[in-house]
């Protein structure tokens, strides 16, 4: 009896919290226009997979039409958080923020699974420990995976986790970026100046601009070459670069799993690392990190003080995707020598959802690619449809992720491309897996790698 009473009062509490989303949910007119663009609905034709269906479930829960918060959370988790619905909604329903807030509220009610809690609260929240564990994993990964000619083949990954089986993985880098990069800008941390090597003290470059580089987990631990290319490109353009020594995750994995506590800790950690008064711009090479810093830090972070709240907004204003920074700030242009030449390999571009739909960045990465006239650029059909990654969606719903990814492979292949470029390391991981599954020998590259090939070919590699 006591238990029933407690359950009931928890349910009432949950409904009260859900009511904070009432106005945002009520904006939905049920027009169904989100159906045509939802990559998940297109595959499943299941109404609870599309934004309209999810919003109706949330509405039903907050009006006590049914009492099944766990069931609603399961439906909410079947979502790539790609933002296609929000970008195409005639009523401007902010579906991503509604879904993220609902996940936080319902996860708080139903308690997070222990494994997730350990990963987020004890590993991801603690960047130094997380770095040590990944460094250990990078040394032992080949005991569990079979290396194939094309990509690291994860056919034995089930030994570690059934979630990873059958995947073609991009391996962890033997040395992460934070171990090979210049650690710090002495102008911002004067007390560390005496320890720095003389060549690292050159902070004032000709452009007069100072840029903070938010590296992000995937560029640091999986793609350090791309991060290195970014630093070298910035140096080439005479930009002073500031790279804090102990960066953490942007927080999106925790936020999308409904873990507000870890998200808050990670944003607070980043605020300690990046003082917005110390740089002109903050750049990232990861579409998801950029979208998180620009959109979700200001809207979802709960600051402990007014100063923290103001800092988050100032950082968001100064944050640019690297492609956008190169084009809009530095004036990088398409090469005017890019005449048609049949001998040049074809390159195509995949729009990461977080760049195209969340930030409306789409022409800039295409211009950055076309600054390198060694390739012939060709658009693929539906370049802006999701690749099927969706972060943890890929782990939890690999079959659906693959169904979505197969369409992307067909679109890439239809261009005859030798290379597919994109601006998001998570999309790169998905594209590598999907192309390898279909046995397509098409290279996956970051836009910055393509630009670097042109710009940096004459510069010695050690000169970052
Ligand atoms: S497009 Fe917008 S208003 Fe229409 S059903 Fe979807 S979320 Fe609702
Ligand atoms: S965010 Fe993407 S996957 Fe989720 S409901 Fe909207 S369109 Fe569908």
Protein architecture, described:
This protein folds into four domains: 2-110, Alpha-helical ferredoxin (Fumarate Reductase Iron-sulfur Protein, Chain B, domain 2, Orthogonal Bundle); 114-169, no CATH class; 177-329, Rossmann fold (3-Layer(aba) Sandwich); 346-455, 3-Layer(aba) Sandwich (Rossmann fold). The chain has helices at residues 2-18, 22-26, 39-44, 51-62, 69-77, 84-87, 95-110, 114-124, 127-144, 177-180, 217-221, 224-236, 252-256, 260-273, 287-300, 306-318, 322-329, 353-356, 363-370, 392-396, 398-414, 425-437, 447-455; strands spanning 146-147, 152-153, 168-169, 210-213, 240-242, 281-284, 319-321, 346-350, 376-377, 419-422, 443-446. By secondary structure, it is an alpha/beta fold. The N and C termini lie far apart (68 Å). It is 50% helix and 8% strand. It is globular. Mean pLDDT is 88; it is low at 183-202. The chain has a four-stranded parallel sheet. It has a four-stranded parallel sheet with strand order 9-8-10-11, sandwiched between helices. The structure holds iron/sulfur cluster (2 copies). One iron/sulfur cluster binds next to helix 4.
């Amino acid at each position: 009896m006591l238990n029933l009473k407690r359950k009931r009062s928890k349910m009432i509490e949950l409904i009260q919290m859900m009511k904070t989303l009432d106005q945002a949910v009520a904006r939905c007119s049920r027009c169904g226009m989100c159906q045509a663009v939802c990559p998940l609905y297109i595959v499943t034709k299941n109404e609870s997979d599309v934004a309209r269906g999810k919003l109706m479930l949330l509405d039903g829960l907050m009006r006590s039409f049914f009492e099944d918060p766990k069931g609603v959370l399961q439906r909410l988790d079947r979502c790539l958080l790609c933002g296609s619905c929000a970008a195409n909604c005639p009523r401007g329903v902010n579906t991503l923020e509604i879904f993220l807030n609902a996940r936080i509220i319902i996860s708080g009610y139903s308690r997070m699974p222990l494994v997730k809690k350990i990963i987020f609260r004890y590993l991801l929240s603690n960047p130094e420990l997380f770095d040590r564990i990944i460094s250990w994993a990078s040394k032992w990964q080949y005991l569990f995976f079979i290396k194939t000619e094309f990509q690291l083949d994860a056919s034995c990954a089930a030994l570690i986790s059934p979630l990873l089986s059958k995947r073609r993985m991009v391996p962890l880098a033997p040395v992460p970026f934070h171990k090979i990069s210049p650690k710090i800008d002495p102008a911002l941390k004067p007390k560390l100046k005496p320890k720095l090597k003389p060549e690292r003290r050159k902070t004032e470059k000709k452009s007069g601009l100072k840029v903070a580089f938010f590296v992000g987990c995937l560029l640091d631990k999986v793609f350090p070459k791309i991060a290195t290319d970014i630093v070298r490109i910035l140096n080439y353009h005479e930009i002073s670069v500031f790279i804090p020594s102990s960066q953490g995750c942007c927080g999106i994995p925790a936020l999308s799993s409904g873990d507000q506590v870890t998200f808050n800790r990670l944003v607070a950690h980043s605020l300690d690392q990046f003082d917005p008064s110390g740089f002109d711009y903050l750049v990232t090479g990861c579409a998801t990190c950029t979208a998180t810093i620009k959109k979700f830090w200001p809207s979802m972070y709960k600051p402990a003080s007014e100063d923290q709240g103001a800092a988050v907004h100032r950082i968001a204003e100064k944050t640019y995707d690297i492609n956008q920074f190169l084009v809009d700030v530095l004036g990088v242009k398409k090469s005017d020598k890019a005449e048609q030449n049949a001998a040049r390999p074809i390159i195509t571009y995949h729009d990461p959802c977080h760049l195209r739909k969340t930030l409306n960045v789409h022409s800039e990465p295409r211009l950055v690619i076309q600054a390198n006239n060694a390739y012939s650029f060709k658009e693929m059909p539906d370049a802006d449809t999701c690749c099927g990654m969706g972060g943890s969606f890929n782990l939890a719903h690999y079959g659906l992720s693959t169904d979505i990814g197969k369409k992307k492979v067909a679109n890439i292949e239809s261009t005859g491309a030798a290379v597919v470029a994109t601006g998001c390391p998570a999309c790169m991981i998905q594209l590598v897996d999907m192309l390898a599954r279909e046995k397509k020998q098409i290279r996956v590259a970051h836009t910055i790698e393509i630009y670097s090939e042109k710009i940096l070919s004459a510069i010695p590699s050690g000169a970052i």
